[in-house]
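WARN no homologs supplied; continuing
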Amino acid sequence: MVEVSPPEAVALVDAGAMLLDVREPDEWEAGHVPGATFISMGEVQTRVGELPVEGQVVVMCRAGHRSAIVTEALLRTGIDAVNLAGGISAWAASDRPVVKGDGSPGTVI
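OK structure emitted
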């Protein structure tokens, strides 16, 4: 499994990769990365058809553990997935934006 840093994730997303957030709904509502797609970890298996079969998926959670599990599962289905090392916590620590649904500043919980 490949892990990427927040700057590497930005470059991948800028190049067309999907950013997939697999945290829980309350975590997403408190704050998420603008433009990310939200599918909680427990729903990924039943919603895998919503993910691109071509292109790359950058998977993230709060710290990187849940997203690592999802990344491995997606790789087994043939989806080109990479894990965001350190998750949204590392994202926020690198001064990248985290917002609420209304666009106001969000928090990582």
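Residues 53 and 78 are 8 Å apart (CA to CA).
OK
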